[in-house]
Every structure is written in C-alpha cells, then in structure tokens.
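@channel anyone free to eyeball this complex?
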Amino acid sequence: MKKHTIAVIVNDQPGVLQRVSGLFGRRGFNIESITVGSSEEAGLSRMVIVTSGDDHTLEQVTKQLYKLIDVIKVIDLSSNPMVGRELALIKVNAEPASRPEILGVVETFRAAVVDIGTHSLMVQVVGDTEKIDAMVELLKPYGIRELSRTGVTALNRGNSK
Amino acid sequence: MITQGATLKSKEEMKERISKPEVISGSEILLRSLLLEGVDCVFGYPGGAVLYIYDAMHGNPDFNHLLTRHEQGAIHAADGYARASGKVGVCIATSGPGATNLVTGIATAYMDSVPLVVITGNVISSLIGSDAFQEADITGITMPITKHSYLVRDVEDLPRIIHEAFHIANTGRKGPVLIDIPKDISAAKTLFKPVTEVSIRGYNPTVTPNKNQVDKLIKAIEQAERPLILAGGGVVYSGGHEELFEFVTKTQIPITTTLLGLGAFPSGNDLFLGMPGMHGTYTANKSIQSADLLINIGARFDDRVTGKLAGFAPLAKIVHIDIDPAEIGKNVPTDIPIVGDVKTVLEIVNKLAKRADKADDWRAKLKASCEQYPFSYTDSDVELKPQWVVELIHETTNGDAIVTTDVGQHQMWAAQYYKFNKPRSWVTSGGLGTMGFGFPSAIGAQMANPDRVVVSINGDGGMQMCAQELAICAINNIPVKVVIINNQVLGMVRQWQELIYDNRYSHIDLSGSPDFVKLSEAYGVKGFRATNKEEARAAWEEALRHPGPAVVEFVVRKEENVYPMVAQGSTIDEMIMGDAE
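replying in thread with the prediction:
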C-alpha cells in the first residue's frame, strides 16, 4: 500500500470538510491525516490529505473528489517533489534529573521547549512525519503525558504544481 | 386530471409579471423562481417549517401543487415526473420527519441519476443545532445521496441557489439537489431579481469527448469480429436515443440495453438482444462473455449486470462512454475511456463510424440465438401467469404506455415481457431497488404526460408501501392504471429462498393484505380483481376504457419464478434457465 499526499482545493463553505471526509469514509478510502486551512486565495481552503492505497484507489479518490461541487482542484502532491510538514506538541515527564537529557534530544531535533511545569516539559517539534515519529520514540522512555499532532500540510517544491 | 389551463401566451405574461424586481418574502421568491425554472407541477406536504411557503401558495393561480399523503409519495412522484419528462422533478417537505421521510426517495434518484430539486424547511436559523422541535440535520443526513445540497443562510442567496440547484441537478451526471430553507429565511423579505446565469467554479462537466479516444473506438470497430453495444440509462438521460439508433444502424453492431436503458433502443429491431444481467436474456449474457469488443454507452457496470466481475466479458476490449469520469474504470478496467455526454459523443462517432464488416458471422449467430432462446414461460389456462398479464398489458396498450414498476419479480417480468420502443416510457428503480416506488412514480409520470396511458405494475408487497397515494389519484382524477400482480408473497424473496436458501421460506407470507378492490374503492378509485384469463382481459380492458384511475388486481400463481437467473457470485453466462414446468 502506497502512501499518497493529496491537496484538495475547496470552496470555503460550511460543511465542505464533512463532504470530503464523508466521501472517504463511505467509499472505503483510508484517511491517515487531514489538515484544513486557508489557501493563497480568499474564499478557497486547502485540505491536505494523506491516504494509502494502490494507483487505482488514488485514481478513484481523485475522480470521486472531483464529483463534489465544492471541490475546485485535486493535486497529487506526492507524485512530485514536495515539502510535507506536521507539528507536534509533546508533554513529557521531566524530573530535574532527566531534564538535561531531554533538552539534548530537543536540541538534536531542532525542536523547542515551549512550556515548563514542575514535573514536565512541553516540546514543540516541526518536521515530516518520520521526524516526528522519531522524536516521539525518543521521548517515550521518559513518559509522554499528552501528545497532539496536527497531521501533514504540504506544498510541492519549486515550480511544480 | 389537473392540466395547466394557462396557454402559452399567458405563461409568457405570467413570467414577465413575476420577473419584475420587487420586495417579496423568501417563500414568494422560491415560488417565483420555481415558476421561472419552468416547473409546472410540485409534489409536497406542508408542516410547521414550511408554513410561509405554503402560505405563499395560497390562492396563487400560477402554482400547481399536489398534496400527497406521505412525503415518500411526493418524492417518488417527483422522480417519476422527472424520468418520464426529462425535466427536473420538484418536491417540498417540512423539517425533521418530513425531511427524513424523503431520504429513501432521494437515494433512489441518486442511484439512478434522476434530476430532482428537493426543498425542505428547517427550524429558524437561530435554533439550528439546538435539537429544536422537528429539527433534523437534513443536509448532513443526505450528503451521501445528493449530488449537492444547500442550507440557505441568507434570503439574498435564494434566487442564485435555486437557479444553481436546477443547473446542477440537470447537467452532467444528473442527480438530486437538496435546498434546506430555515423558516426565518422563508419569511424574510428582500428585493427579488431573478437569476438567469450560472457560474459555479469547479463544476464544468466534460461534454465533448477526446478526439484520440474516439479515433481508437472507430479503429476498434473496424477490427472487431464480435462487437457488442451495452447501452444504459445514460442514453435516455442525454436524449441520445436517435444517435444511438443511427450508430447501431450504421455499424450493424448487436446491442443489449440494461434495465434502465430499456426503451433507448427499439426492442423489435433485429440487432436487439434484450436485457443482460441477473434476469437478462440468454443471448445478451452469452454475447457479453464472447464479445471481443464491448462498447458501454452510458451504463455503469452495475453488479446486477456484470455478475462476478472477475469473469465478466473476459475476451473483450472495453470501451466506456460516460459523462461521469468516476464511473470509468470504477468496476471494470477500461481500454478506451471516453468521457462525454452520450448524445454529443455519438454525434461525433456517427460521422466516422462504418459498418463492422468483420462481424457478419457474429450477427447471424446472435440472431439465431435470440430466436432459439427467447424469454419463455409455461402458460396455464387454470392459473393466471404474471408473464401473461404483462403480455396482455403490452398487447392492449400497443406497447405505447409509460410503464412504471415497483421492485421484485413483477419488475423483472415487466422488463422482460413489455417490449419498449421509446425512451422515457419505462420508470423503475434500478440502482436502489426501492419498494413503494412504483405507484407514486406513476402519478408523476402521468402529470408530466397527461395524454399518455400510464400503467403502474406493482406487487402486492410494494403496493402496500405507498397505497395511500390512491387518494391523490382519486381527488385529482389522475388516470393511472394500477396493476397489482398478487401472488400473496414477497415473490423475489420467495424465489431466492427457494433456489438459494433450500426452500426455507422465512417471513414472506403476505396473508392479511387488504382486499385491494375494496381498498381502491375506499379511496374512490375503481377496483377490479381477476383470477383467470377471461376475467383478466375483461377487467383490464374496462380499466383502460375508464377515464379515471383504476386498480386491477391479478391473482397469479404463487410459485412462479423469474428466469433466466444468475445467482450472485456467478458469471453471467452461468444461468439457471428455468424449471420447464
């Protein structure tokens, strides 16, 4: 099963997220992550969806998405070089003794500590999915109290669209 | 029967009158917009959330509204109207339960690509989301079964939304569009200016086909030794039946039409093989399995047609012509995809197409096969046979009636034994298989075609799902001829239980059904019952002569099965041919 990252440019209308995600659900397509926000044009939003399946599935996903009236454009980002990023906030147990070690990890990953509690640290990390996964793995031994990931947002590199 | 009294001229005057910019309510905007869209008949049911809309109808001489007895009746009637006319069917229901009662009808229309504009009321905007009395999130509920939907948030948007809804419903791959109007929006006033143009970014159905693909098709026809056309409902919806006829005549390629494609091609033609699929003809199914070129025109390779997908048309190069790109390759891998409007595609193809010269042996073989294996049944002089009843209906209406059906055995017998020659003469729920559809859809078909004979063929099961609409036939003198093929059971379920579930008949006995003659008469509709051929002919002919609505119950043999039959999971040439009684 191949992973595909697609961007869906949609009219910024109430219910459009429901239309798109509902379509994935009832047609049996998988959503690994979905992010929505404004795009470069007022009135249009950009959704970035990470899905998995063979080429036939991707073709059907694309065609079915185009059937939605509010869908303006579907772009298979992963067919070209792209930059994909997600952000994670990780609240990790951090007793004074273990803090230097944790800060070492944070520094290595070019992450940042964005909040400090008496027994914990909140770490913010930005990167591709694999980087976030690795960061989470490294912090696990200390005890992750809470974790929140945004899902992937992405754009194609350079001039490719 | 209600007919539009207005002459063409007065219609023009009316249009001019209602187009004038004026400050009016959302309800009045809705009514005027519908009239400007050319809607001449709306089916509906009032309730709290649409009271302003119904108030605007009061005393409005231009607006023709039929009050059904159930919202399901209203939407199936609107569906029948649309299928039999090619125009957009319209129905109105209130919020909550009124709206949810439409769900089956919306899904029915969606599966068969029928253009509908469905108007529902909703609670006032400020109460939306508060679980208010009779509130339901109908746009959310119907999202998977509508082509598009609108929840109106500003009365200013209403003219644009209505115009867009009609455009979306009846262009591209057609389908139902829902407009949900909160009560305060239908009450709010604004300056009404009719919207006549539509621009929806991102919605541009491809009408004209790719030239390269058309050339590939022409070449494939030249090379084919066993070419076959599989035509579907898309031919009817695009109005491309004449182009299809020209295509077949020019190329002399044998043709089979799906259930929804019946009438798209004249059934008496030498090249017509009948319907394929689960209850299709022997020849149609065999021909698909041995064809070397299968040209699908406006059909969607439904599983009732294809049988086991892995073994479907194993030798054929597949051509698929469809307005909806998502249909191409969805079920069957396609060698030559042609996205476009069927009529437009065939117009272009017809300019280039030539006779398929290599297919002479194939044509002869299929013609002989059709003669050898027609649909057949063992007639009886003791019991009424449902197939005979359909033949009687065909004979007495000269094959010119509009036939609507419910779902089940009678539907298949009607498809098999009524020979259709014209498009929009066959109204049936193909995709969803909706019981309760047959009778109310006939009311809509008759409203759209006041001068044609409309026959609604139903089973005793489905008739009881919307029998209440007999009232609107009686009150409005809508002269639908309702046939009930009464075998006292759920016939198709009985057939499956006999053949596949080892005669374990579970909950199919419809004992306790009403006396259909008395039921009809209770509504003020003429009722007849027939138990043998003599009674059947006499009753049916009298019903046909009767100027108003009539119900004829034909009491038929309970154990009769529909043959041929392809069991689910089999390839379509693995047919059970019948029990040769």
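from a first look: The CA atoms of residues 27 and 88 of chain A lie 30 Å apart.
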